[in-house]
Structure formats: structure tokens, C-alpha cells
């Protein structure tokens, strides 16, 4: 079945498939953890039941999403040893410690406080529970920081030397961690996660606003949920566009052929480059067919000068050019969604100003439609970044063709097929359950994650016997 296919291509598809699944969950939990910390803080400050209701509603969704993110991340990491062992051997001295730091400082932090966040409200006191919520939120962001440092180093490597055996060995850890693209990629990705969460929450709120009317018990909590999400959209969407522009300028400096592919610039433009809004990349002829362009706008955006010259892919050797079509379209999907997010945020601001934030059904329909848009945008952004790095795994130093394990195509293909089948069943069921939780909506007075009445006795007592004993008035009197 896979004998006539390329083993390296199959390994790339497998990694892309597994990381695409994994990336969706942290993109949501990073923002959701911070949202939960804010809700808990507002509840403690105001003692308003609606904030506790929203916390109890979203914390269940967070727990399920967090679990799926952990499981998908573990399976993904094994591919470094199975499909990409040459890359792991050569780059391991640099990326290995950074990934270990992520586990030690971030994952243990969020996982350690997660239990207190879920079950500890009535057991550890309000202060410690709030601290646990804050640590979970901090841990998710710190986890992303380490992973993005690893990824950014692969795009803009520095602070290393190459040993006699071909391994990349660290020389300066500060230069490795804080490599040139890291600050921009970190800011852009974290902001994308917060924006993704805002639109998911706004979509859920819009769904229930479209369903509930007047005296519905969900109404107060739903309105608060929707309002907070739209405030986040208004503030973060323009910030994300600004950070994206900075990230693009950094990419132009260190990975110019990636930007050439993003812009569809097959040819150089010595007197100002156009901004192509639409076109069909023609790899065979090395041109953009059916192009719709704004003259010189690309030079204005990238160089802040209408007449600034921009090099094209005709200045790059053929074997160092990224696949243009994928990068060109994924970039436009990401940017297009970003501007749609900004439009919805401004629309909500106008509706809020007119007093129609909770009654504008067209706004609610738009917000519902945009609910999963952040997930699509982060995947499109990741595809732009990673496919645009080709043909390298470590930019300019190690090619993808040199990084793969010496495996035959059938072996890689079989594991890819197994991943596809298992992932769609397991994570499909998980996503279906999440959607059911979201559909149920927050109920005023809703209880959170249940605490047990006492320690579970397992020695010589079955759960049924224990329950019966706890319900027996005689037993309670003796225990008293």
C-alpha cells in the first residue's frame, strides 16, 4: 500500500497530523486557564454568583481539553525517536534540555496545581485555591514559552557549535533560548491563544443568547460570558495584527524566502512590490496566475516605503525554495481570519455603544460562526511557519531530507494509518463530549467539580458498602 511512496514525505505527514491535533488543545487551554483565573478572582472580589457559575462551567471543559492535550503531546514526542532519529541525535544536545525544562518547570507546575484548582475550593481556602488557579494559568504560558524557544531556535539558530561528530552543541544558553525570532513568535502565538479562547467563549455565549430569552436562568451568566469575550476581541485582535506585522518583519530579515512565498513574489520588484490579494501559484512556470494586486503595497507593509525594492524567489536557488502554494494560501487564511476577528470585535463595540450587545441577533450569528475561527487561524499560521521553513529542519544548516530515520515507507505508512484511526476515534469522542458540555450551557447555582465527602476507603469496603454506611443514621451517630 505504501511501497511506492516517499518515507520522508510520510514521516512529515505523520508529524503534521499529530501536531495539528495537539496544537488545537494548548491553543485553547492557554487562554482558558487565564480566563478561569480571572473569573475566580472576580468571584472572590465581588461575591457575585454568576462568576462562580461561569468558573464551574468552563473548568469542566478545561479539564477535558487539558487531558486531551497531554495525551496528544506524549504520542507526538515519540516521533522524534521513531521517524526523526537523525535530527534528534544531532540537535538533541540543544533541544533536549529545553524540552526537559518545559516538563520540569511548566508541565509539573500546571499539573501539580490542577487538582487543587479542580477540587480544592472547599478544602484549601479561597486564597490557596486562587493561587492554584494562577499557577495553572502561568504554567500553561510557561510551557508554551519553552516549546516556542525550541521551535524558534530551529528557525533562527544561534549560540551553538557543531562538534566533530556533527552534533549541535550548546555554547551560550541565553543566545539559544532568546534567539532572534523567539520574542516575536512567543508574543504572536500567546496572543493567538488568548484570541482563540475569546472567540470560542464568545461563540458559546452567542449560541445560548440565540437560544435563551427573558427570564431564562442561564441568561445573566451567558451575557457576562459574551461581554467578556467581545471585550477581549476588541482589545486583542488589533494587538495581534500589530504583533503579526512585527513577526513578519523579523521573518523578512532572517528567512526572506519564506516571506517571498507568503507574498507570492516569484520575481523581484526593484521599484516597489505589489501586495497580491489573490492568485494561483504556478510552480511549473514560477509565476502567480490570475493575480489581483494592490501596486507597491507589499513594499509599504514590509519596508514602509512604496518604492522600496523587494527580492523575489528568482534570487533563491531552486533547491532552497519553500512550497509556494501551501504557504501562500495558509498565510492568507490566517490574515483573513485575523481581520474578520477585528471586524466582529468592532461590531460588538458598536452594538455595546448602542445598547444592543445582547439583542443583536446578527452579531450573535456572526460570533457563533467565528467560534472555531481561532483554531483554524492558529493551524494556518503554524502551516505558514513550518512549511515556509522547508527544505530545512534547522534553518540553513540541516535539511529535512537529512533528518529522517532510515525507515522504509511501509513502516512509516502503517504507523501513520494507525494514528489516523485511533486519533479520530479517541479525540473525536473527546471533542463530541466537549461540544455537549458547551451546548448544555452554564446554569446559575451550578456546582463545580464534586469533592468527595471524605477519604475513599478501599480496604475491605466496597464503594456501595461505604455509601450505604454513610447514608445510615446509626453509622453517622457512631462516627460522630
From TrEMBL:
GO biological process: aerobic electron transport chain
Family classification: Belongs to the cytochrome ubiquinol oxidase subunit 1 family.
Lineage of producing organism: Bacteria, Pseudomonadati, Pseudomonadota, Alphaproteobacteria, Maricaulales
Region (Disordered): 448-480
Subcellular location: Cell inner membrane; Cell membrane
Regions of compositional bias (Polar residues) in chain numbering: 458-472
Gene from which this protein is expressed: qxtA
TM segment ranges: 20-43, 55-78, 98-119, 126-148, 191-210, 222-243, 326-350, 362-383, 407-435
InterPro entries named among the record's database cross-references: Cyt-d_ubiquinol_oxidase_su_1
Keyword Cell membrane attached: yes
Annotated membrane topology: Multi-pass membrane protein
Protein name: Cytochrome ubiquinol oxidase subunit I
Amino acid at each position: 500500500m505504501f511501497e511506492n511512496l516517499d518515507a520522508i514525505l510520510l514521516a512529515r505527514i505523520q508529524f503534521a497530523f499529530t501536531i495539528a491535533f495537539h496544537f488545537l488543545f494548548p491553543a485553547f487551554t492557554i487562554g482558558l486557564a487565564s480566563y478561569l483565573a480571572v473569573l475566580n478572582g472576580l468571584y472572590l472580589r465581588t461575591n457575585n454568583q454568576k462568576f462562580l457559575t461561569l468558573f464551574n462551567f468552563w473548568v469542566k471543559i478545561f479539564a477535558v481539553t487539558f487531558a486531551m492535550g497531554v495525551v496528544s503531546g506524549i504520542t507526538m514526542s515519540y516521533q522524534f525517536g521513531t521517524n526523526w532519529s537523525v535530527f534528534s541525535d544531532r540537535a538533541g544536545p540543544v533541544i533536549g534540555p529545553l524540552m526537559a525544562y518545559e516538563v520540569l518547570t511548566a508541565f509539573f507546575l500546571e499539573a501539580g496545581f490542577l487538582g487543587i484548582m479542580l477540587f480544592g475550593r472547599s478544602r484549601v481556602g479561597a486564597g490557596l485555591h486562587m493561587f492554584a488557579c494562577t499557577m495553572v494559568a502561568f504554567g500553561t504560558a510557561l510551557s508554551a514559552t519553552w516549546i516556542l524557544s525550541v521551535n524558534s531556535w530551529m528557525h533562527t539558530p544561534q549560540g551553538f557549535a557543531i562538534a566533530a561528530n556533527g552534533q549541535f552543541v550548546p555554547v551560550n544558553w541565553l543566545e539559544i533560548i532568546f534567539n532572534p525570532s523567539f520574542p516575536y513568535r512567543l508574543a504572536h502565538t500567546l496572543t493567538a491563544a488568548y484570541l482563540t479562547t475569546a472567540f470560542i467563549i464568545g461563540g458559546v455565549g452567542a449560541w445560548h443568547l440565540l437560544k435563551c430569552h427573558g427570564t431564562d436562568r442561564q441568561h445573566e451568566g451567558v451575557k457576562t460570558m459574551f461581554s467578556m469575550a467581545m471585550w477581549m476581541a476588541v482589545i486583542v485582535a488589533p494587538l495581534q495584527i500589530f504583533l503579526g506585522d512585527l513577526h513578519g518583519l523579523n521573518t523578512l530579515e532572517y528567512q526572506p524566502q519564506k516571506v517571498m512565498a507568503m507574498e507570492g513574489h516569484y520575481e523581484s520588484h526593484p521599484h516597489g512590490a505589489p501586495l497580491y490579494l489573490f492568485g494561483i501559484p504556478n510552480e511549473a512556470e514560477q509565476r502567480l496566475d490570475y493575480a489581483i494586486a494592490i501596486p507597491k503595497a507589499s513594499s509599504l507593509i514590509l519596508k514602509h516605503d512604496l518604492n522600496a525594492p523587494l527580492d523575489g524567489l528568482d534570487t533563491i536557488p531552486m533547491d532552497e525554495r519553500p512550497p509556494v502554494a501551501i504557504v501562500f494560501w495558509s498565510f492568507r487564511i490566517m490574515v483573513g481570519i485575523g481581520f474578520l476577528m477585528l471586524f466582529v470585535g468592532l461590531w460588538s463595540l458598536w452594538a455595546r455603544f448602542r445598547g444592543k450587545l445582547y439583542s443583536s441577533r446578527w452579531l450573535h450569528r456572526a460570533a457563533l460562526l467565528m467560534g472555531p475561527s481561532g483554531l483554524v487561524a492558529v493551524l494556518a499560521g503554524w502551516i505558514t511557519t513550518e512549511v515556509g521553513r522547508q527544505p530545512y529542519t534547522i534553518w540553513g544548516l540541516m535539511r529535512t531530507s537529512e533528518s529522517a530515520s532510515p525507515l522504509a515507507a511501509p513502516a512509516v505508512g502503517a504507523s501513520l494509518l494507525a494514528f489516523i484511526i485511533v486519533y479520530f476515534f479517541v479525540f473525536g469522542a473527546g471533542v463530541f463530549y466537549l461540544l455537549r458540555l458547551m451546548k448544555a450551557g452554564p446554569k446559575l447555582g451550578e456546582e463545580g467539580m464534586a469533592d468527595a465527602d471524605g477519604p475513599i476507603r478501599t480496604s475491605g469496603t466496597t464503594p456501595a458498602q461505604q455509601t450505604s454506611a454513610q447514608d445510615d443514621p446509626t453509622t453517622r451517630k457512631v462516627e460522630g
